[in-house]
Amino acid sequence: MKAFHSDQFVLPLPQGHTFPMSKYRLLRESLGAALPDIEVCEALPATDGELALAHDPAWITAVTEGTTSPAQQRETGFPWSVQMVERARRSVGATIAAARAALFEADGVAANLAGGTHHAYAHKGSGYCVFNDVAVAARLMQAEMHRHQHRLLRVWVIDLDVHQGNGTAAIFRDDPTVFTMSLHGAKNFPFRKEPGDLDVELPDGCTDEPYLDALDRALAQAWRAQADAPPGLVFYVAGADAHEGDRLGRLKLTTKGMAERDRRVFQALERWRLPVAVSMAGGYGRDIAVTVLLHRQTLAAAQMLAQVRRQPV
Fold first, then answer.
1. Nearest 5°: phi and psi at 235?
2. Sequence-distant (≥ 6) Cβ neighbours of residue 139 within 8 angstroms
3. Degrees, nearest 5: CA angle 196-279-231
4. Contact yes or no for 258/213 (Cβ under 8 A)
5. Counting C-beta atoms within 10 Å of the first and last residue's C-beta, which end of the chain has fewer, N or C?
6. What's the CA gap between 168 and 171, in Å, rounded?
7. What is the pTM of this model?
8. Which of these, 251, 242, 235, 252, lies nearest to 283 by C-alpha position?
9. Which residues are 15's β-sheet partners?
């Protein structure tokens, strides 16, 4: 299994900023000992043309040239810098690479060690998200599938970050070729949700058992809705922020519950034989080592799926 990273591009953030920039490097460094069979690759940056598949050219230009307004920078959550632009492009590039590997390589599983920037709209960034990596990668994979195999690629976005993927839902609102499913905190950011194809709102303090029950029902309902025209690619926006130790999550899943969440997602995708590109998304734990562990659990479950798929039938 391949995993793509862009953690060498670090944003210069103010002291006390809540974004855990170091977790990406720590996650990559931990894989050598914990998951040595994962092949870690550096991501290339997304081009203007690739970004324009999901974003307004005016937003791409403003970000690239540093002409975003103070209000836009506050909404995105990052001050403008050359490093910010490069990291945003590479984070999208990593999801593109993971999607391409999932679609066209044998085990059908790959990952971005960052990504999941689901609050970015076509025309703006928001909530620590500059460009929407899943939206860009989905559009590009649809174009490549049409060009190379002359067929329509349907996409399923499974978003289990604790915050609703409002940007992704808005971008694909009128697109029947992309099915967006989100389990998220009802009272958490964003406070104005965008309707997706399947939204499951969870109460503050939700624990393992009701969460996993809701997940099972949502996976089954989403599959039924797509059964007549099943997806050819899944994006799993995993997120570590549903964990009980997260500063911003407001849910109460245990470490064991988070592992079971991942197991159930990958078990369902194996049952339906669907390729999957995984992104880490949010994770703001009080202990950054726990956040890294949770992301690594997701990668371990993905690697297990890849191993199952490599076994002879």
1. -110, 120
2. 53, 54
3. 50
4. no
5. C
6. 5
7. 0.97
8. 242
9. none
| CA angle (246 as vertex; 241, 252 as ends), nearest 5 | 80
Could you report the average pLDDT of every consecutive run of 10 residues in the chain (313 residues)? 90 82 94 94 97 98 97 95 95 98 94 98 98 98 93 97 98 97 97 97 98 98 96 98 96 98 98 97 95 98 93 72
Q: Cα(46)–Cα(136) distance, rounded to whole angstroms?
A: 9
User: Residues 6 or more apart from 50 whose CB is under 8 A from it?
Assistant: 92, 96, 136, 140
Cβ within 8 Å of residue 61, ≥6 positions away = 67
Dist. CA 244–CA 271, nearest whole Å: 29
Cα–Cα distance for residue pair 244/290, rounded to 1 Å: 11
The kind and range of the H/E element at 76 are helix 70-76
Cα–Cα distance measured from residue 297 to residue 283, given in angstroms and rounded to the nearest whole number = 13
